[in-house]
Amino acid sequence: MTTVYVRHNDDGKIVTIFGAAQPDMPELVARDDQEPDIARFLRDPLGLEDAFPALRKWQLWLAALELEPPILKADVLSAVDGMAALSARDRETIRIMIEDAQDYARSDPRIDLLAVAMGIPAEQMDTLWRWAAEFQPH
Is the pLDDT of residue 50 over 80? Predict the structure, then answer.
């Protein structure tokens, strides 16, 4: 447990966290850094987890099947294997991520490499990600 000093906006949303009291900021509230909302802000100060929730493995790949044309995991793996600009280690890292990860974070830079492998322009990946987060199998 570490005490941090938190400033909230008028809506109660965390705006800033300091590691020490600030003498010119009496509005700061001392809090435990292990409290869920504090830990979340420290981990994700920009709120990207809310903007892009983690996708479960099945959400990503079942959503990929709904695209036109459908994107198959085997085809993506093959495309990654053919990325000559990547080292063998980087290709293997991406393969492990594709096959073994249980969920995916949009902020992971390898997701952008997967988008290239799947032929999805970077600007469309954000929209696809949000759609896939809502995807439920039938």
Answer: no
